[in-house]
Structure formats: structure tokens, C-alpha cells
Design a protein that fits this description.
The protein has about 120 residues and is mostly beta strands. The chain has no helices and eleven strands. Helix content is about 0%, strand content about 60%. It starts with a strand and ends with a strand.
Length: about 120
């Protein structure tokens, strides 16, 4: 019954900014690593950024310096601040989380569309 719900996607012009959110709900003991992935039309899904339960972050080279990942453990919510957006950032952005219940399970959200126009 654990669910991940993304929000914050939309249409922006190149150079603009968006802030994505991923909220986890349901029976959970704790959430370990959370991450963002994206998939553009005709492309494979690619890693964007990840953050551990202790706050350690990792970024894909393509977004390093422009995107910032963060989390609020008290609210079971992860964020992705996207600045200086480029048309090549256009994709469906999906939330991923390793969640401890009776064991550890990996969950995915349904994704939120980000479209960057030139």
C-alpha cells in the first residue's frame, strides 16, 4: 500500500525553473535512498539524482550544477529543484524509493511531465 506521488511538472521556457516533489505515503518503517529518473520520448530511462536517508547526494553529469535534490524525512517527501532548464531536459520524471516495511521494497511513482520549450 506504499504509494509515491510526483507533482510540480509543467511547461516552461528554456532558462526557466521548476520544483518537483515526490510524496510517499502508506505503511512504512523508514525510507532509505530516494532518487529521480527521467525518460524522454524515444529514449531509455536515465538516472538524474539520488539522495540517501542521511542526505548524501549524487547527480548525473548532465544535470550537475543545475539541479538540486533534497528531502524532508519528517514529511516523507523528496524534491528536485531544476534551474537553467534546457529543451533536452524534456521528459517524464519519476520518483523511486527503497522503503522498509516488513522488508525492503522498491517503489516507483507514475511520473510527472516536464516540457521545456526553446
Amino acid at each position: 500500500q506504499v504509494q509515491l506521488v510526483e507533482s510540480g511538472g509543467g511547461l516552461v521556457q528554456a532558462g526557466g525553473s521548476l520544483r518537483l516533489s515526490c510524496a510517499a505515503s502508506g505503511p512504512m518503517v523508514s525510507i532509505n535512498t530516494m532518487a529521480w529518473y527521467r525518460q524522454a520520448p524515444g529514449n531509455e530511462r536515465e538516472f538524474v539524482a539520488a539522495i540517501t536517508s542521511e542526505g548524501t547526494t549524487h547527480y548525473a553529469d548532465s544535470v550537475k550544477g543545475r539541479f538540486t535534490i533534497s528531502r524532508d524525512n519528517a514529511k516523507n517527501t523528496m524534491y528536485l529543484q531544476m534551474n537553467s532548464l534546457k529543451p533536452e531536459d524534456t521528459a517524464v520524471y519519476s520518483c523511486n524509493a527503497a522503503v522498509r516495511t516488513l522488508g525492503i521494497n522498491v517503489y516507483w511513482g507514475q511520473g510527472t511531465q516536464v516540457t521545456v520549450s526553446s
